Amino acid sequence: MTDSSGGTAGARDDRASVDSRLGSGAHALMRQNFGNIGNSQFLHVAAREIAAPNPPQVVEVASRTFMIRPGMANVALFETDDGLLMVDSGCAGDGPALLRAVRELSTQPLHTVVFTHGHVDHAFGLWAFLEAGERPRVVAHENLLGHFSRYAKTAGLNAAINGQRPGANGRSWPSAPEDFVVPDLTFRDTLELRVGGERFVVRHAKGETDDAAWVWAPQRRVIAAGDLVVGYLPNAGNPRKVQRYAEEWADAAEQMAALDAVCVITGHGDCVHGADAIRDELLTMAEYLRHIVRHALDGLNAGLRPDEIVESLVIPPDLAAHPRLQPHYDRPEFVCRNVIRRYGGWWDGYPANLLPAPAAARAHEIARLAGGADALVARARELAGTDLRLACHLAEWAFQADPCSAAAQNCYLEVFERRRDAEGSLMGKLAFSEPVQRVLAERAETIG
Fold first, then answer.
1. I want to staple 236 with a disulfide (CB 3.0 to 4.6 A). Which of 73, 145, 301, 335 is the partner?
2. Dist. CA 84–CA 216, nearest whole Å
3. How many CB atoms lie within 10 A of CB 303?
4. Nearest alpha carbon to residue 376 among 361, 387, 391, 358
C-alpha cells in the first residue's frame, strides 16, 4: 500500500513517530484498533485537508452490501434500486476518498445517511458528498444534537485530551456551525426506513455515547453496528471522556444477538461473519460487561471505596480469553470505574482527599520525610523492577517535589516509559506518555 504523503516511506515515518511518542508497538496497536490511520491524521482528525495514509479498503460482505474503511472508522454501504443507504461517513479528512470509493461501487444516488453517533471519526466526512452535489436525507438519534453541542462547548478540552493540532482553518476540533451536518430526521427509540422497497431498522442503544444507533437490514441479514461492535473490549471506560453506558451496551449486544444476522459491519476493525460467530461475540460481550457492572454495584452497595472495588475485580478466564474482546484500547478496570462514576460521586472515599492539599505540597512533604527528592528517585528505580505501579507513585512524587531536578525528571521519564511499554491498552499508553509532555514543558520553562 501507499499513502497520500509519500507512500511506504510516509508509513514508516508514521510508525516511527507514533512509537516514539507512545512506546514500542504503539503504531501496530493503533493500526489494529483503527485500521487505516497514520500519524498526520491521528494528530488532525478534524482537518478536512488531511486524509488517511492509504486508499480505502472495500469489502463486499453480502450482495450489494459493502464495508468501506476510508480511515480509522468503517462505513457501511447498502445499494438498492432507488439509491444508496450509507451508515457513517468517517473523519473529516476521509470525505473525498470515501466519495471516490462509493462512486466506484455505484452510480445510484446517495439516498440516506445514518450516523451511528456523533464522534469525530464517524460523522464528519459527509461534507465532501454535499459539496459534490449529493443531497441525502441524514438520519440520527435525537441526542446527536446534544453531542454536537457538547463538542462545540468543549473543543479545547477535546483537542487537549486527544492530542490534536490545528488544521488549515485554525481549529483543532469541530466547533463552528459549518463543521457539523445537522440531521434532517431524528428518532427516539426505533425508526423504520424504506429505501428501494427494502426495510432498514434503525435502533437506539446507549453505549460509547448516549446517541448511539445501529442499523438492521433484515432482508440481507446484515447489521451495521457502529462502535457497539469493534472487535476488542468495548470502550465503556475511557478515563478522560464523558459517561459510558456498560449496562445498555450489554442490552444492545443481546438484542443484536437475537437476530438471525450473518454479518456485522463493525465500527472499527474486521467484520464478524457467520451466525454462530456473531452470537458468540455479542453474548460474550454482554456477559463480560454485566460481570463488571455487577461487581461495581455489589462493591458500592457493600460500602467499599472505589479503589477497593477496582482492585478486587477479576474477569473470569473464559471471558478474558475471547480473542475479539481483548483490552487493546480500553481496560476492564476503566469500565469498572465508569460504572462507579455513574452510580456514585467523584470522591474516592478517603477523607484527606475530599478537600486535599495541593499535589505539589503533598509531594514536598513526602520528599522531606523521605530525605529529599533524590531518596524518592533512588527508591523508585529500585522498585521499578519488582513493583512498577508503586514505582510510578514515587517517581511522580519526586518530580512534583522538585520539577527542576534533572534526576527527578529523568526518573519520571524512565519509570513511566517502562510502564507505558508494558501497557497493552492504547488509552493506558496515552496516559503513561504524559510525563514526557510535563518534563518537556518544565524544561522549556526553565530555558525560557
1. 335
2. 15
3. 8
4. 391
